[in-house]
Structures are given as structure tokens and as C-alpha cells.
Amino acid sequence: MPDRPFVVTIDGPAASGKSSTARMVAEALGARHVDSGSLYRAVTAARIREGDEPQLWTEESVLHAARRVSWQPGETTFLACIDGRPEEAEIRGDAVTALVSQVAQMRHLRLWVNDRVREAATAHEVVADGRDMGTVVFPDAPLKVWLVALPSVRARRRILQRTGREPMPEELEAETEELEARDLRDSEQTQPAPDAVWVDTSGITQAEQVARIVALALERRPN
Ligand code: DC
Questions:
Q1: Is residue 17 helix, strand or coil?
Q2: Which of 60, 84, 97, 170 qualifies as a FRET site for 41, CA 20 to 30 Å off?
């Protein structure tokens, strides 16, 4: 067993509900939520701030921008900060979403993010969500969850979240296509660990998925 507090990993494709599920599971366990995607997003936002064309971005220049990014530990989470400030709206914005997959392919940046995520888990119990938390970052975590949902289900949830209403058929189709394209771009690093517990969220409520994961975590957490 690693000499580290308890870790739960939650991985899965875009819009599978990882972050909101991880946040609620962390809250129920009294652990902290670590959203690894927020670090890739913050580094992308920091790089955008430097102003030149994304086609010119080298891995070296992205790693340089990463120096402006840090974690701010809160009561229940670790917030990704740029120049010491949390910039949630900026890192969730469309400009970052369009460029983050390109940045997340960079091998040395992945090592940098993985180190930051492991650091967050040295002193606290964490629920870490992302793509490769169970395969690369915490392969020995006692509980690894792989969250899945049909692309059309994920697309509907995303539109509902964004607009607060049911999608029109053509909106749903466009969003599903966009999600499938993103799945393809992120597919290399988005894999379930061989011993992950699969949770298909297509037909269950968020409260049910959270309850299921919390129950598994309590079974596996040492007393
Ligand atoms: O989950 P998200 O949309 O916030 O992730 C943002 C991007 O970062 C997305 O392109 C996938 C990538 N990512 C990754 O490659 N590995 C992770 N552990 C987390 C996110």
C-alpha cells in the first residue's frame, strides 16, 4: 500500500458528469476534490494570455506559462489559479475549451500536471477526477471509477446545464457531434483502468451515482 491518504479516482469522457460527481463524493467522504482538467484549462488560459497564435505554441512555451499556475487549497477542493487568483469563468470559457485538447497532448505538461495532482494528495484524502487518474496518476488507488454515458445523454445534459431548457433536435445533434469529436481528440489518454468499477450514468440520477460511489469508497476506506 502506498504511504498516502485514501484516494478515489473518477475518470471518463467529456461531460460524463465527473467533476460534479467527484465534488459530491468528496463532500460526503470529507475529502477534497481535485479536478485535474482544471489544471490543463488554467495552463491553456495562461498561455492564451501571452497573446500569440495557438499554431505557434511550443511545448516549451506552454510549460513556461504553466509556471503562472498553482493550486489554492480550500476547505473542500483545490482551485487552479493563474498568477495566484482563481479564474473559474476564464478557464471554463469557450476560448480555453477550444484549445485545451491540443495543450493536453503535450507529454511534459502531462508530467507537470500529474506531479501537481499527486502533491495535492500527499496530505489530504482526495477524490481526483480526469481522464487518466486511475491509469497513470494513482494506479494503486483503492477505488477507481470509470463513468460512462451515451454521447446523446451527455450532450443533452450539457445543453440543459448551459441553457436551463430541453434541447431542440438540431441542437442536440450538433452538441453530440461536438462531443464525439472531443472524445476522439482526447481518446489516447482517456482509458479505464483494468480494475476500474464502471458506472453507466445514462439511466440513473446523479444522487444514485454519488450514493453508489460513496458506498464503494466506505467499503474500501481503511477505518
Ligand atoms: O474535463 P475537462 O473538460 O475539464 O478537461 C479539459 C481537457 O483536459 C480535455 O481536453 C481533456 C484534458 N484532460 C486530460 O487530458 N487529462 C486529465 N486528467 C484531465 C483532463
A1: coil
A2: 170
